[in-house]
Specification:
This protein has 97 residues and is mainly α. Helix 1 packs across helix 2. It is built from three helices and two strands, in the order αααββ.
Length: 97
């Protein structure tokens, strides 16, 4: 499978991009090079290799969602650009119907 100039022009049109003549030639060449690398990977013997979800074998590093000590309102709102009593004041996000 090869990428042709028309393919690059079509994707550019869909993405609303404008390329020069030189860029069209360069992208066509580069995309064909990438496809050639994938074709090379197809020849790799993967018999006996377990599928992996991730390349690195890491476990979830997030902490548990446990309630902790809360900040006092004055400290939590210390850098708030607009405050009303013990709450952040933000612009309305609902339409005024």
């Amino acid at each position: 499978m090869a990428v042709e100039r028309g393919d690059v022009e079509h994707v550019a049109m869909l993405a609303m991009l404008a390329f020069t003549e030189e860029e069209l030639v360069a992208f066509t060449t580069e995309m064909n090079g990438i496809l050639a690398l994938f074709e090379e990977l197809e020849g790799v013997d993967t018999d006996g290799v377990e599928p992996a979800f991730r390349v690195l074998r890491r476990r979830n590093v997030f902490r548990g969602d446990e309630p902790g000590e809360m900040l006092p309102p004055d400290e939590a709102l210390a850098n708030a650009p607009d405050r009303h009593e013990d709450a952040f004041r933000v612009p309305a996000v609902l339409p005024n119907d």
